[in-house]
Amino acid sequence: MPKLKKPRETPPPPAPSRPDWIIVGLALVGLAVAGYLTALKLGGNQAFLCRDGSGCDIVQASRYSLLAGVPTALWGAATYAAILVLSVIPRTVRRWQMAFMLAAAAAAFSIYLTCLASGVISLLLLVTMLVRRPVAQGRAAQAYTLKRLAGLGITAGVAAVLVGAFIFAADFSTPAGYQVALAEHLKKNQAIFYGAYW
After folding, report:
1. d(CA 155, CA 117)
2. Against a cut of 0.90, is the pTM above it?
3. 61 — phi, psi (to 5°)?
4. pLDDT, tens only, 100-122
5. What is the number of other CB atoms lying within 10 angstroms of the CB of residue 128?
């Protein structure tokens, strides 16, 4: 009697992943803050609780408020929106890693710009993603190791800072007439520079 082969058992399909609501919430907060700052920049308005001459007023009027001619806050809003979308749709290893790299890039760039609100939100996102990273089996488990995530995070952060620094250093990142307008503003307000040379 010939041996009958046992039918190969196929593993059950993985359960659909649910959104991590903490990450979704942090991405929404980041999107709200960046969206608010974008609206202020585009409308030429001042931020709430931001007086003339204060730190936030100076930053909103500086050349760092535009990146490649687009409000820097709008880039942040797009980043938080991408993290939000990647966190809500069914999770795959690649999608989760992309969201993690975006959070790392946002954290590094916010620290580079010393943007306190975005820096805190993006660092919270990054730490939350590390603490709540998915548990996987087999080859997929390698994608979530701390060593692998550190490599991805550092790569994304360094790339974001280098690209941003390059764009800020390039001539096209400064709005036309910025230096002339600044000089006229300082002259009109009779600004005096106090400094020391060693």
Report:
1. 23
2. no
3. -95, -5
4. 999 999 999 988 887 888 889 99
5. 16
